């Protein structure tokens, strides 16, 4: 069992997302995260799914999804050939005297302050999923009040076109 | 034109001759359009489930798309079972349901149900039409999707105000479905590989399923089987795709298939699966299924290939084209000489002789197998084609074992979903498709009671069928499992032989009714039923204790067959 990222180009039609998600529940596949949004074309959406499954099940998922009338294209995004990003909003409890320390820490981690309250700060962080997780761990000792992640979105690297293997530069 | 009239024009333009349905509030405008006139014959069912199974029977007998029409809410939910049945057995179906007015959708209005939502996991695609301008495009797409690629059901849910709306009707001449691209050809390298494997195999076996019938590829299959001298097993859903009298047709494998068919698969070194999907009722324990065999899996649906059993040689594409090409490739590959397979073919013949279907006729109550053999022999003496339908259970398995089918589309049954009550309405639909044929439903008493109200449809629509009830007074297959696996605790399976009085019930529905209690009465009653000139029901009181054998217990290896009434497991 490994985790896979699947990218789906989908017709932007009523019920299209429901058809994809019901296929997963119906066939017993577990979705870790699902992000959906518009693309360069208004009539097409892109879904990025994180799924826990075996290689064999992944093939089944792709084939079953291809049979959905609204699904235009299904591709697996392999870690080394794709860019994957996630956005997280994290509200961290913080007393006034600890604020400078926490803000400095967040800046090092690449997060931005989105809002400051009397006893808490909300940070926004865009980054690779592992960076988001690292930041979450970093601020956890202060007390995480609320947290939301978009789930990852991904695209194939243009630099990976036409060749196999790991790209030389990993941004 | 009104949306309602447009629906009928679409049906006419798609070449639909018959549809099956029942009116109700949200579909009333479309029935008003039927009243205004159409070339499509509407068969009025007594329950939407019946309408759906009739459309299925029509589709399976004719090879065309079946059309069922129902209203919103309960009309749509009653269609769910036939839609699921068509989904499991890949039967092309277009279901048209009325929906409440657009302004009421989402308000829990009277008879409102989310029909597209409820059916989402069991349709190839569905549409909720809320704009009349969309209607022709949707109808065109619905018929296209139902019958291209792997066949199956689609649903078109039409809001009542759309049916009432006025617009300029234009039927599109092509579909615009960028995401729907079923394969239209077969990869030549896969075919060559398959051909080489077939030529090299010592103990090959063709495993043909319902996909062959759906693809109208029976002639091509026969050509392959004959040119390469291949033996074949044919699943329940495929029955009729290869003549049952063909010398190398070893019939149905699986839970109640013959021992020789199961052994043929088990001992083969090459399984050539054609339009079959390695259903658990065929394979038994998958890890013990054909353990020494390579698999060629030939299917229109890529998702079936490798789903259950790894296929060494996957061949995805349309069977009709692909099988014809494969036969050619096999001939070319065999030019250098094929291996001598006479030992394998002789072995299969030996098994067939050694392990025929058998039962003990006894001298007590009438055995169900006697009834089915009598029907088979009666049908063989008739000039016209006989089309068989069945319910689900013991009688269905005996029909699979004993009925001889020489023609495609003459054995119509519910395989994947196992829908009790399928037989009577499916027979009516088959009769609508093939008025020239005699349509016989071999039914169980439990199944019969689930949809017997459709006898009214058969009588009044002049679609005469013969229903033969293998009446053992029990939910026989369930009883068999209770006897074998639940220590004979017969919980809630006893229906009794005599309630209802089936012959009287038949008469009440305007059909001829017969009751048979002894073997002497059997043939005269069946002959009279065939000659009744109207629908007939023959209630044959059978032995309640007769069980269907051979039987592979669920989850057991296909070779671990319970062969005889003694119940002993005999392994190879």
List keywords for this structure.
heterodimer, A: four-stranded antiparallel β-sheet, 4 helices, disordered C terminus, B: alpha/beta
Describe the structure.
The complex is a heterodimer of chains A (171) and B (572). Chain A has 171 residues and is an alpha+beta fold. Chain A is 26% helix and 42% strand. Chain A has helices at residues 16-26, 55-66, 99-109, 129-139; strands at residues 2-11, 30-38, 44-53, 71-77, 82-93, 112-116, 120-127, 144-149, 153-156. In chain A, the strands form two sheets. In chain A, strands 5, 6, 7, 8 and 9 form a five-stranded antiparallel sheet that branches. In chain A, helix 3 packs antiparallel against helix 4. Mean pLDDT of chain A is 90; it is low at 165-171. With 572 residues, chain B is of the alpha/beta class. Chain B is built from 23 helices and 19 strands. The longest helix of chain B is centred in the N-terminal third of the chain and has 15 residues, at 48-62. At the A-B interface, helix 1 and helix 2 of A face strand 5 of B.
Which helices and strands, and how do they pair?
The complex is a heterodimer of chains A (171) and B (572).
Chain A: E1 2-11, H1 16-26, E2 30-38, E3 44-53, H2 55-66, E4 71-77, E5 82-93, H3 99-109, E6 112-116, E7 120-127, H4 129-139, E8 144-149, E9 153-156
Antiparallel strand pairs in A: 1-3, 1-4, 2-3, 5-7, 5-8, 5-9, 6-7
Helix pairs in contact in A: 3-4
Chain B: H1 3-13, E1 18-21, H2 28-36, E2 41-44, H3 48-62, E3 66-70, H4 74-78, H5 80-89, E4 93-99, H6 115-118, E5 125-129, H7 135-147, E6 153-159, H8 160-164, H9 188-200, E7 204-208, H10 210-214, H11 218-227, E8 232-234, H12 259-266, E9 270-274, H13 280-283, E10 294-299, E11 313-316, H14 319-333, H15 342-354, H16 368-380, E12 386-390, H17 394-402, E13 411-412, H18 423-433, E14 438-444, H19 445-451, H20 455-460, E15 466-471, H21 476-485, H22 502-508, E16 512-516, H23 519-530, E17 536-541, E18 561-562, E19 569-570
């Amino acid at each position: 069992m490994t985790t896979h990222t699947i990218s789906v180009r989908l017709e932007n039609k009523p019920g299209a997302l429901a058809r994809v998600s019901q296929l997963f529940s119906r066939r017993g596949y577990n979705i870790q995260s699902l992000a959906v949004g518009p693309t360069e074309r208004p009539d097409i959406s892109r879904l990025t799914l994180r799924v826990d499954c075996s290689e064999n099940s992944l093939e089944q998922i792709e084939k079953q999804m291809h049979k959905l009338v609204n699904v235009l294209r299904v591709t697996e995004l392999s870690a080394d050939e794709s860019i994957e990003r996630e956005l997280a909003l994290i509200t961290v409890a913080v007393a006034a005297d600890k604020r400078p320390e926490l803000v400095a820490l967040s800046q090092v981690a690449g997060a931005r302050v989105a809002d400051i309250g009397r006893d808490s700060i909300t940070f926004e962080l865009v980054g690779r999923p592992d960076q988001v997780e690292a930041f979450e761990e970093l601020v956890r000792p202060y007390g995480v009040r609320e947290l939301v992640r978009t789930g990852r979105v991904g695209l194939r690297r243009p630099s990976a076109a036409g060749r196999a293997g790991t790209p030389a530069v990993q941004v | 034109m009104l949306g309602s009239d447009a629906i009928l024009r679409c049906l006419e333009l798609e070449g639909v001759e018959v549809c099956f349905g029942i009116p109700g509030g949200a579909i009333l405008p479309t029935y008003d359009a039927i009243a205004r006139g159409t070339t499509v014959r509407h068969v009025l069912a007594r329950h939407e489930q019946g309408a759906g199974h009739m459309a299925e029977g029509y589709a399976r007998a004719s090879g065309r798309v079946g059309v069922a029409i129902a209203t919103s809410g309960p009309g749509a939910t009653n269609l769910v079972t036939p839609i699921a049945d068509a989904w499991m057995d890949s039967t092309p179906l277009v279901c048209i349901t009325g929906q409440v007015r657009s302004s009421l959708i989402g308000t829990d209005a009277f008879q409102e149900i989310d029909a597209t939502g409820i059916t989402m996991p069991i349709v190839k695609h569905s549409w909720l039409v809320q704009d009349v301008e969309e209607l022709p495009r949707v109808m065109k797409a619905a018929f296209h999707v139902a019958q291209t690629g792997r066949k199956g059901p689609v649903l078109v849910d039409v809001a009542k105000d759309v049916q009432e709306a006025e617009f300029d009707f234009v039927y599109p001449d092509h579909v615009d479905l960028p995401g729907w691209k079923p394969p239209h050809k077969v990869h030549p390298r896969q075919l060559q590989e398959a051909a080489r494997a077939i030529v090299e195999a010592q103990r090959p076996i063709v495993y043909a399923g319902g996909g062959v019938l759906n693809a109208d590829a029976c002639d091509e299959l026969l050509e392959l089987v004959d040119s390469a001298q291949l033996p074949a097993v044919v699943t329940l859903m495929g029955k009729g795709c290869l003549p049952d009298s063909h010398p190398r047709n070893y019939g149905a494998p699986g839970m109640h298939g013959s021992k020789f068919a199961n052994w043929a698969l088990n001992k083969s070194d090459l399984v050539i699966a054609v339009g079959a999907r390695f259903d658990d009722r065929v394979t038994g324990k998958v890890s013990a299924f054909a353990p020494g065999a390579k698999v060629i899996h030939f299917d229109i649906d890529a998702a079936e290939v490798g789903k259950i059993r790894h296929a060494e040689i996957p061949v995805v594409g349309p069977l009709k084209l692909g099988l014809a090409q494969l036969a050619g490739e096999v001939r070319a590959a065999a030019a250098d000489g094929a291996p001598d397979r006479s030992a394998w073919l002789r072995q299969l013949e030996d098994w067939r002789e050694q392990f025929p279907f058998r039962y003990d006729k006894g001298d007590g109550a009438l055995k169900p197998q006697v009834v089915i053999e009598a029907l088979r022999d009666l049908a063989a003496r008739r000039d016209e084609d006989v089309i068989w339908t069945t319910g689900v259970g013991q009688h269905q398995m005996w029909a699979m074992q004993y009925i001889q089918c020489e023609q495609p589309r003459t054995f119509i049954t519910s395989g994947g979903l196992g829908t009790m009550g399928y037989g009577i309405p499916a027979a009516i639909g088959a009769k609508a498709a093939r008025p020239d044929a005699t349509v016989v439903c071999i039914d169980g008493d439990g199944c019969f009671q689930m949809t017997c109200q459709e006898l009214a449809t058969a009588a009044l629509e002049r679609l005469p069928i013969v229903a033969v009830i293998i009446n053992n007074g029990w939910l026989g297959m369930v009883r068999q499992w209770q006897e074998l696996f639940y220590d004979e605790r017969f919980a809630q399976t006893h229906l009794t032989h005599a309630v209802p009085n089936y012959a009287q019930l038949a008469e009440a529905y305007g059909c001829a009714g017969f009751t048979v209690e002894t073997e002497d009465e059997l043939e005269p009653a069946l002959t009279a039923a065939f000659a009744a000139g109207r629908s007939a029901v023959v209630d044959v009181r059978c032995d309640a204790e007769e069980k269907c054998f051979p039987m592979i217990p669920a989850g057991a290896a296909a070779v671990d067959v319970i062969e005889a009434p003694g119940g002993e497991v005999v392994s190879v």
